[in-house]
Amino acid sequence: MRIISDFKDFYDTALAMGADSRVAFIRHSQSFDELPEEWEPMRPGASGHAGIRVGEWEISIRPLVIAFCGVIYHGVGVESQKAMGPPDCHESFFYRYEDYATWCAEQGAPLTPWPRRHTWKHHHWRTEPYHEKKRLSLRHIEPARAWFEDMNPTQYRDLFVERKVPVATCVGKPGQYASHNAMVLLEINGSLANYQFYRVFGAYEAYQELSMFMAGVLSGEDGPMAGIDDDSLRREKGFDCHSFRKAPTKRRPKECKG
């Protein structure tokens, strides 16, 4: 599989092993600050958190959904930023509950059990179970574990096949509750390296998955050049709009578009 793109991703290194020229992945990314209705299944169903103060550091947490070759993967992005002094900020992404919980504990902000009751001054009231509230707070053990353990990761496979989208990412903003109007950033065919997806697939494994998805699922029997249009194919071969045609007879040749 050849990759036609204006940016690099972590699995591009597998191209050194050779590529099938009959299949191409045109990796042109498209971003949305507001989630289109048809992409609503990509909305992260978990709550992010911002401004968690631990010593001189402030921690922000945001949920992440990645669709890769028709399969949904849940992750969490954690950002640590110094509250004072010289700027110092770094972000990591996790795709396993154990890794995420370990990181939180090491940072001095361990996950806590879902509270059974709240107390405010002299008032006490019971807390509804997290699954009844449909709010997977990533600061508590039970809902955070449920976020990573999605039991039906292929339920929206047809959505990505119909739209011929092998890669999609949607990340929530810190401090946003899991609701239909939560602020998110959706990117179609964007970079997976930005979200450290190599924690899930190595470069060669990710490339192989994409190759099989593009050639075996998206192409069909009548489309061996999955994902590549005529204009892109023509430019890749070094031809222009005058190739295989009679040369223009006018003094000023017609300019090629695109």
Task: Provide structural commentary.
- The protein has 258 residues and is of the alpha+beta class.
- The protein folds into two domains: 84 residues, no CATH class; 159 residues, no CATH class.
- It is built from six helices and 13 strands.
- Strands 3, 5, 6, 7, 8, 12 and 13 form a seven-stranded antiparallel β-sheet that branches. Strands 1-2 form a two-stranded parallel sheet.
- About 3% of the residues have low confidence.
- Number of H- or I-type helical stretches: 6
Task: Tell me the overall shape.
Answer: globular
In this structure, how is the largest beta sheet organized?
7 strands, antiparallel
Mean pLDDT figure: 82
Number of strand elements: 13
Return residue spans where pLDDT drops below 50 for at least 5 consecutive residues: 221-229
Distance linking N and C termini: 24 Å
Helices and strands, with pairings:
Layout: E1 2-5, E2 24-27, E3 30-32, E4 46-47, E5 49-54, E6 57-68, E7 71-82, E8 89-94, H1 97-106, E9 117-120, E10 123-126, H2 130-133, E11 136-137, H3 141-148, H4 157-162, E12 167-172, E13 184-188, H5 203-218, H6 230-237
Parallel strand pairs: 1-2, 4-11
Antiparallel strand pairs: 3-13, 5-6, 6-7, 6-12, 7-8, 9-10, 12-13
